[in-house]
Amino acid sequence: MNIALIGYGKMGQIIERFALERGHEVVLKISAGNLDELTVSNLRKADVAIDFSTPDTAIKNIYTCFDANIPLVVGTTGWYGQLQEIKNECLSRNTSLLYGSNFSIGVNLFFHINEVLAKIMNDYPAYDVQVEEIHHTQKLDAPSGTAMTIAEAIIDNLDRKTEWVNELEGQTEIEVVKQDQVLIASQRIENIPGTHTVLYSSEVDEIEIKHTAHSRAGFALGAVVAAEWLKNKQGFYNISDIFNFK
Ligand SMILES: NC(=O)C1=CN([C@@H]2O[C@H](COP(=O)(O)OP(=O)(O)OC[C@H]3O[C@@H](n4cnc5c(N)ncnc54)[C@H](OP(=O)(O)O)[C@@H]3O)[C@@H](O)[C@H]2O)C=CC1
Ligand SMILES: O=C(O)C1=N[C@H](C(=O)O)C[C@H](O)C1
Q: What keywords are annotated for this sequence in UniProt (predicted)?
């Protein structure tokens, strides 16, 4: 399979390594320095594109891939405010896109456990819930896309919660978290690839589930597997469509 890498930073470079190991060829690599090469004709040399760029540039890149009618895997986070617009555009143009806030198998298992736990906790109102995420200091968006996915699943499954709010340590402070809100507490610490915790606390005890990425390898391998899965499909997908946890 020929792959176009849109965004050749920390993730793009590891994705390239896994793509080559799995027998694929990388035919285009885009960074801020060679954006003039991100053209419809160059994209058409690839079977699939993978975007790990920046929150502010992902939407433009998505439209360029739609123009080229090339299947696109989007790992970039921080653009989900425009998710519905992108979904509509993808479906009306009969092209294909798969997105996900986190491509690692471990986090996708964690998403499943989080949903099951949230449903169970409907019967235990003594517990309040909070989401915590820690990432490296170069991260441009807060909260992390993964933390948003976790918080939204809690809201969908735990009746007493209706919205999330975010506090980024040292930058934004929430004075009062209302009873129907899920606090996402974000921290930025050097060299942390991504740690997510869901914490249920009562007066007497706590229940915690936690995922710690030891490196970016799980995200990168997942992105290549997602591209292989998407190659001959048409439609709008989420990474959860690849997994079928019982
Ligand atoms: N879904 C998942 O599993 C994961 C998602 N992510 C997300 O992926 C994104 C990228 O992360 P990461 O690799 O760590 O970030 P980096 O900052 O290391 O890389 C971003 C890359 O995008 C390039 N870039 C800048 N502008 C554009 C543009 N207009 N078009 C294309 N590329 C551009 C940068 O170029 P230059 O270096 O020249 O500035 C750089 O190569 C983030 O949104 C992050 O949250 C990260 C890990 C896992
Ligand atoms: O920016 C990162 O590094 C990561 N971003 C994703 C997110 O926002 O959830 C996934 C992963 O946690 C690493």
A: Amino-acid biosynthesis, Cytoplasm, Diaminopimelate biosynthesis, Lysine biosynthesis, NAD, NADP, Oxidoreductase
Average pLDDT over residues 114-136: 98
Q: Does the pLDDT value for residue 244 go beyond 90?
A: no
Q: What is the CATH number of the domain that holds 19?
A: 3.40.50.720
Structural domain boundaries, residue 234: 2-102+217-241
101 CA: nearest ligand 2 atom = 9
Same domain, 138 and 69: no
111, 10, 42, 34: which is closest to 26 by C-alpha? 42
- 146 Cβ closer than 6 Å to some ligand 2 atom: yes
Residue 206 pLDDT > 90, yes or no? yes
Contact 137 CB / ligand 1 (< 6 Å): no
pTM of the model: 0.97
Contact at 8 Å (CB) between 90 and 66?
A: yes
Are 96 and 122 contained in the same domain? no
DSSP 75: -
Q: Which residues are annotated as a binding site for (S)-2,3,4,5-tetrahydrodipicolinate?
A: 136, 145-146
Give domain status of residue 246, yes or no: no
What atom in ligand 1 is closest to the CA of residue 31? 35
Q: Given a cut of 90, is residue 231 above it in pLDDT?
A: yes
Q: What is the pLDDT of residue 246?
A: 74
Same domain, 234 and 147: no
- Confidence band for 39, pLDDT divided at 50, 70 and 90: very high
Structurally, the chain folds into a number of domains equal to 2
Average model confidence (pLDDT) across the chain? 97
